[in-house]
Amino acid sequence: MLKNKSIFIGGIWHETNTFSNKKTYIKDFKSYQWLENKNLIKQSNNTNTEIGGFLDIFDQKGFKVVPSLFAAAVPSGIVTKKTFLKIVKKLISYLNRDQIDGVALALHGALVVENIGLPEYFLINEIKKKLKKNIPIVATFDLHANLSFELFQICDMLIGYDTFPHIDMRNRGNEAALHLCEIIKSRKRPEKYFNKLPILTVPQMQSTNESPMKEIMKSVFNSEQKNEISSISVSPGFPYSDIKDLGLTVIGYGSKLNVLIRECDKLTDQIMLNKKKFTPQILTINDLQTELLNFKKLKKPIIITDPSDNVGGGALGNNTEILEILLKNKLSGTIVIWAPYLKEKIYKGNFFDDYIVSSFPNKGTKLIKIKGNIIFNQLNFSYNRDGLYMTGQRVNMGNVLVIKTKFNLKIILTENRVMPFDDKHIKVFGIDPINEDIIVTKSGSAWKIGFGEIAKTVLNIDTDGICSSNVKKIIYSNKYIKKYWPLNE
Ligand SMILES: [Zn+2]
User: Residue ranges of the domains in the chain?
Assistant: First the structure.
């Protein structure tokens, strides 16, 4: 009876940092992920992505999949209205009203668009207009979603990632697809519950392998064991966004509302009681200088994180404060710096003797002199992810130049911004992370997938960037956010 059902799939994925000046345009989606029509199936099959997860289940069930568009851009500033409407128009152009029995979407949940209040809600509303009545819609979302009640209401089920660093995209795609099949089969929607908590947490403290998220997720899984509970998701959220729906969200679905409320409220109490465990430990740039006086004694590899310049959180990835310390102290290691000028500026020969550009949100730009051998130089370079993050996904780094100084500091300049969610983005240049003295990573927690196991010393540094782990540095325009922990302390 379930055979011959048709499922419409697609999605839009962007974590928008509204404090970034770098607006997000259609070219940013096209240069990262733009999978359309049959290509969406071809490129997503057998990948650790939400769409890959949808396809596993719909294939198994013998459903017909109607692919549309999945567009994703590396986290950055607000998405222009024109860009968003173009994506929505393209996505729904694949919708044929009479054919569709269910919809599965891969969303992020932290998308912000100019002059469109709730863009993900807007997209689903547009899809709904083109569907027959009562067609179920499920969607996946990132653990960094700033979920709105409106998005929660318009979807029959929302299934969030359970992991950070994110490694369960395919599993959550499987889960969402299975729930969609169940809703189609039973023609029954689950009961649902939404709870927003007034706390702001930062990526550095949201790892689900560490306290307090580890214990929180354990409670989630315990609750999900109950027969009456279908799914519970906790989204700590993304604080670098000046919108009304900030805060940590607990959402759940199940067959009995009273059990669902009881389990979600229990979880809420646990989170509120333990909120102080989300307080990050961060060092200043001066502290780093002091720590590195002991460079010889520090166990290697030393991972220096720069969460303020977190590329995966929408920062530019070209802050050079840490690089300058390494240069000054002639320390060996590896650092990746975003260098958009490589698009026009083509380097020839084996030696680099030039300036690289660093930008700071409050101090403008700065030029840093670099001298060294060019050990890698390629135009339009890309690689396939083979780590646990979005395994199988293609990443386009653009033009790439790798410079090695006399004291073995490798500076990887990339035309496109690259999220350090795997170790392959440095391994492809012949750099073996285990042999490095220092690896600088512009990331909050996601670096742990690639380098967590080899890290012997970790130094988290608070540089001048828009993703600081100190949320008290952020100026929110919504006054009520000041009542959120830790801003109310
Ligand atoms: Zn995320």
Answer: 6-278, 285-469
